[in-house]
Amino acid sequence: MSVNDTAHNDNFAWNRQVYHRLKLALSLGLRRQLFLAVCDDLHLRNQVAARLHSTLAYPVGQVLYQPSDTQENSTPAYPRIVTLRLNLNDPNPIVQINQWLANYPPPIVGGSKDTPGKSLPIPAFQIVGVEQLTKQPVAIQRLFLHYLRLSEQYFSTQESNRFLDSSLLLWIPRPWLSAIQQSAPQFWRCRTGVFAFAGEPTPTTHNSGYPERFSSSRSLDLGNLEQPIPDESVTAATEMKFEENEGFKTQTQANHRRKNQEASSPIVDLLNTVPQPREFTTRSASGRNDQLLSSLSHISSELTELVMATIDTVIAHDTEDSWQPQQILLEIEALHSQQASGELLAEAYHHLGSLYRLCIEQGQSTLENLMVAIIAYQEAISYDETSNQLPDILNDLGTLYWMLYRIPPNLEEGQTYIEQAIEFYQLALKLISPETHLETYARVQNNLGTAYGDLARFSNQSENWEQAVSAYSEALRYRTADMDSLKYAACQNNLGTAYWHLGQYNQPIVHLKKAIASYNQALIHYSPEQEPLKYGMIQNNIGTACWNLAQYEQPAENLQLAINVYREALKYRTPANVPSACAATQNNLGTAYWHLANLSQTPKEIRQKYLQLCISAYEEAIALAYSLNDTSLSFDLLATHNNLGLAHYQLVVDNSFNGDKATRSQHLEAALDNHLQVLNGLSKQPEVYQTTFAYVVKTIRAFHSELGIQGQNLALSKVPSQLLAEILSQL
Description:
Elements: H1 11-27, E1 33-38, H2 42-56, E2 81-85, H3 93-103, E3 108-109, E4 118-119, E5 124-128, H4 138-150, H5 152-156, E6 167-172, H6 174-183, H7 185-189, E7 193-196, E8 249-250, E9 261-262, H8 287-295, H9 301-309, H10 325-337, H11 342-361, H12 367-383, H13 390-406, H14 414-431, H15 438-455, H16 461-478, H17 485-502, H18 508-524, H19 532-549, H20 555-569, H21 579-597, H22 604-627, H23 637-653, H24 661-681, H25 686-718, H26 721-728
Parallel strand pairs: 1-6, 1-7, 2-5, 5-6
Antiparallel strand pairs: 3-4, 8-9
């Protein structure tokens, strides 16, 4: 396909494929590779460039170098990919790359008194900002093309240009692709690959001095609840959730050696209140930013670029000595110029990372803010690996990488980010013990359990949930109810969730009973008067575990227990307070009633009552779901429609039903309407579609058997015309 073909039926799928190919090409680390990335949509370009940087620049294991000799010095963090913005005054990308390498030569690692060290690889470089040339004089545009024409000699000779040992990725819009093909054919012939992204051109606007942001300021994804439990006829939804990942600490600004305290980070648990973003201070753009950007010669350009791109969003703290990122960058630059000690440099970088961490805690968990905090903390560690704050910094780094996984879309790099988070948590645990760092040890173990639970979504489910159980259990050895009852309760809830998941893979009775025990321990410390939402959530989780346990032993007793706690949860999970949670619990309640109605030991006279209660619960769940518009649900709404249809159907065909013809028709019509609504929401997926189609046919047959030919005709009149032929062939 030509790179000029922009019409794609599914831009998202296309761009995702292109991104994966580009990421793979860069990650191979080959020399003398020239890649052209073509993208007219600046928002998409910024998003992809930032994702490449966040994934490839600082892989764990290549950031913290463990010395093999005690005399070996620590090595500063060194990137594997560098993002540079084209210098519009002198648009020569090769000169910019060589200048960067002169300022930041690859460090030597692995050396000792007996053996020489080895230089780290030259990073790859991605150049952005070519589209800004359109607003420059024609002479500048021609100069850029002239430099590209001259670049052929760099690729074809063995001159000592450092960039020859790396790869170059040049981001360009389509008009500039055509210009390069026509006016710089030498450069075009040297290309290794062209990666064309689909998207509409972004209108050019005047930029008054600020660098473009790498992505829009998207907040953390609040996440979906656990998916429904599949059942042959009915599905039950769970709502297994975690305590906040507590990796961040609130620190006072009076002293750089601040007291560490646990604080909430904005994450995905009804156990916790998501903090609201504080009001931002808006600053006007000025030439001072560009001057600052060009004056920092000792700080890595990628860190500077990211900081400058986030100036507008960093929270100004209401204190006399409030920190500003510009000021901190200048302090770090001055320390470098003065050849300050590693401890002072580490403190300054930690200062910068803490500012962004506090900004993140207030809800501004954008990709840029997370990356600044990550790079700053990594630099802090590289300059002082003996700091007494190192365990807390490692814990914070683990949490920051975990938060990268929570930023949507997270499918591509999610597993990598979580694995990086786990590695940092494990590094922190190697440096501390519960005897010396009791609270930090328990906090890191809790966070490690959360990370393993998320990793289970990608691979090795049983093994990772076992690791989560182990981490939470270890945390609870030292986090007692006497120390902090609410954190103890939250960790017990986490442990219950891990046991519940583990019960889906092995020893279900053992693990589900342990899950119920943990949830009950958590419930003790949540007062329904003071913590109604948390109390209701734990009750819901107990109900789900009891429902699950009913599939293995004492079904009537455990289903009744599930119903009781679901009903208790609904006293606090109301449509007014938490409509989405209320809908989830109503859906779970309907499922429990369904199964209780269908037990062989359930008396006939009570079965009808349970089915009616099942229908009422499902109808309430569906009504609430449609009132929520775009709010994410924790259960499959189409599956609930199918479940409701089955309940209406069974109510009529049950031998104990004694309703008249009008009532029978009413229930069968409701069953058919629900199943047809599901068909309208499905593509022809072989299993799901055919199962629902079979429900439609079965319901139409029930119309005939219960109401005669007139009933069948009524049913067929409701069926879409395109389905009639297929349905008639099966009646």
